[in-house]
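fyi for ur records
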Amino acid sequence: MNLWFEHSQSLPIGAELDLRLLDRDSLDLSSSSLQVLELLKGVNSFRTEIYQSMIEVTTDLCKDAHQVGRYLRSSMSKLLEAFDKLNLWISSAGTHSFATYEDRIIFPEARYKKALGNHQRMAKRPLIFCLHVQIGKKNRNYAILVVNALSHYFPLFITPFSSSPFCNGESTQLVSSSTAYFEALPRGSHPSTFEIWIEFISVYDGLLNSGSISCPKDPRLDMRPSLGLGTIEPRIVDSPATIKETEAIVALIHLICQRVDKKNLSV
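which gave:
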């Protein structure tokens, strides 16, 4: 498989934040993303998620965490206008305290139906909201080496803002249950270590040829190269409660990437 990786000479950074749609009266999750997205037509910073009670807000690649925060605040202001019309509240955290996944409605897109077809109940269980961070890298071999290096810092990424103790309305006795649920998926895990890009591609080819995946986004790894953007993508952080906290974790990951970058990893 010849996967394209867009190059970036600097260290731009961006964010993708899962948000919960809440009914203002009951505070339960509201399956209203179709109506919200209809009101936000033409605004490119919002994306669907597997459940209609979720929406993802994204930023462009930015120079620093402050700019990421400005993008998010601008998008949130548009989102709140739509929410006022639909009697909704916006909320952000890793899990909802009493919502159950049996009551959720799947967003009508082929990729979500395929995920359910492949994994059935396992695909529905993680009613989890996450922050994904995108960091630009100068080439694909370098991106692989940085993924290896950043894996040592996962505890620093997870610990400060863990907020997913609930599952199906019950306490899991875990501060962050999201990592445990994703590891239970057949294609979800801690990233493997590769020396060069060709080793990474050989694994993807094996998964593709066996029918285990149909595209590079299928493996739900804790961190992976994001090919079209030319970034690496840590995916293990629970959605922070505020934009300020989102800025903080984005800044932490950005600083650690800069520290790793100064080590002049050979490619």
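The first strand starts at residue 13 and ends at 23. thats all i got for now
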